[in-house]
Write a structure and sequence with these properties.
Strand order of the largest sheet: 2-8-7-6-5-3-4
Bound molecules: 4'-deoxy-4'-aminopyridoxal-5'-phosphate
Oligomer: single chain
Family: Belongs to the class-V pyridoxal-phosphate-dependent aminotransferase family. Csd subfamily.
Distance between the termini: 42 Å
Shape: globular
CATH superfamily of the largest domain: Type I PLP-dependent aspartate aminotransferase-like (Major domain)
Number of strands: 15
Pfam families: Aminotran_5
Number of helices: 14
Cofactor: pyridoxal 5'-phosphate
Catalytic activity: (sulfur carrier)-H + L-cysteine = (sulfur carrier)-SH + L-alanine
CATH architecture of the largest domain: 3-Layer(aba) Sandwich
Number of domains: 2
Keywords: Pyridoxal phosphate, Transferase
Length: 403
């Protein structure tokens, strides 16, 4: 047996929502929250009001410091050398839209191309379709290989002098497949093409070293990483700072304003117009501190082992079809002849929380030749009992549906 310092039972106890009901297997949609996050957020609201980067009173100054310290914590998590590279957003979706509108739109010309993998969540497809339409450019598909992973071998042929950006997910939210990011970045950079990496799923399982990989842009949402909703991050490599211009105007994103114009603040504040999600940042900061106590590689092995166990058990059931990539903590599946919507309804009725449908990835569904599927996603707070409950609920549902 592998020696690990990961204590699954102790980890589970950090999450007050982890009870008997429901069996929560929907962490790829959003993760449950640890008590430390709930406490930090409660303190923020309870201990008196203050905003950041504005008022001069003590609480405001203290919070401003905390807000900026949290930025440094994220920089440390991502191995980003420069804290200014960490821009607070309201989620991965907003972070990707920011790159589309502030970085790409000013330079995108008619006839230019944006290369996007077929496995992407809509958050890493629609912003590119929108900016392409705004500039009469086009979005080109990077197809999947026979294993269902974006085909990096096809990159050299698809990258052209007109390719202005490559958009690629670190990990699929459906299959859990992870393309070879390093290879993709090297090939794209050799063509002079910057890369937007959607880390919304990937960061939970392996935070990247953005400096070592030389990532241009990286987006993630705090809520999938045990943090609050309404908060996310865009990492932007400093080499692109001078090519980025403000995309939302408002308070505190400028140094000077008059009726004849304004001067934007430097990055990151240029992109943080208006009062930010301070409570969210405070809560997320507590999560990032708590995360340091966890052996994450071991926690990840625990998730993959659970997904293996569930998949092996499901394979014993007739008609089981798996879309799961090797070593994925996410298990997407169907049963032949049974509609995913029927199955999910019966599972929900039995207190099993997972998700069925197209998972905001319609092109991927088309590539897989399906209209939708079920998805059980495993987090370190899940355990063998959760799998037993899933299997027993599933067996009951399959009996009803096969009648
Ligand atoms: N990309 C992927 C792969 C995702 O799974 C998600 C969330 N489902 C997103 C992007 C968008 O994240 P958010 O909705 O938190 O902005």
């Amino acid at each position: 047996m592998a020696i690990t310092s990961f204590d699954a039972a102790a980890f589970r106890r950090c999450f007050p929502a982890c009870g008997d009901d429901p069996v929560y297997l929907d962490s790829a949609a959003t993760a449950l929250k640890p008590q430390v996050m709930i406490e930090a957020t409660r303190h923020y609201y309870q201990d008196g009001g203050a905003t950041v980067h504005r008022s001069q009173h003590h609480a405001a100054r203290r919070l401003t410091q905390r807000y900026e310290q949290a930025r440094a914590q994220v920089a440390e998590l991502l191995h980003a050398g420069d804290e200014a590279s960490v821009i607070w957003t309201k989620g991965a979706t907003e972070a990707i839209n920011l790159v589309a509108q502030s970085f790409l739109r000013p330079v995108l010309q008619a006839g230019d191309e944006i290369l996007v993998s077929e496995a992407e969540h809509h958050a890493n497809l629609i912003p590119w379709l929108m900016v392409a339409q705004q500039c009469q450019a086009s979005v080109v598909k990077l197809p999947l290989n026979e294993r269902g992973v974006p085909d990096i071998n096809k990159l050299p042929a698809l990258l052209t002098p007109k390719t202005r950006l490559l958009a690629l997910g670190q990990m699929s939210n459906v299959t859990g497949a992870c393309p070879d990011l390093r290879a993709a970045l090297n090939i794209a950079h050799a063509n002079g093409t910057p890369v937007m990496v959607d880390g919304a799923q990937g960061i939970v399982h392996q935070p990247p070293d953005v400096a070592r990989l030389d990532i241009d842009f990286y987006a993630f949402s705090a809520h999938k990483l045990f943090g609050p909703t309404g908060l996310g991050v865009l990492y932007a490599h400093p080499r692109w700072f001078s090519a980025m211009s403000p995309w939302q105007g408002g308070g505190k994103m400028l140094t000077q304003a008059s009726f004849s114009g304004f001067t934007p603040q430097p990055i990151p504040h240029m992109f943080e117009a208006g009062t930010p999600n301070i409570a969210g940042v405070v809560g997320f900061s507590a999560v990032l501190e708590w995360m340091k106590e966890i052996d994450w590689p071991a926690a990840e092995s625990h998730c993959v082992a659970l997904a293996d166990e569930a998949e092996n058990a499901l394979r014993q059931r007739e008609g089981f079809i798996s879309y799961r990539a090797a070593n994925s903590p996410v298990l997407a599946f169907n049963f032949a002849g049974i509609h995913h919507s029927d199955l999910i309804t019966l599972l929900a009725e039995q207190g099993i929380a997972l998700r069925a449908g197209q998972h905001c990835a319609q092109p991927l569904m088309q590539a897989l030749g399906i209209t939708g599927c079920l998805r059980a996603s495993f987090a370190p707070y899940n355990n063998g009992e959760d799998i037993k409950r899933l299997l027993s609920a599933l067996d009951y549902a399959l009996t009803l549906l096969s009648d």
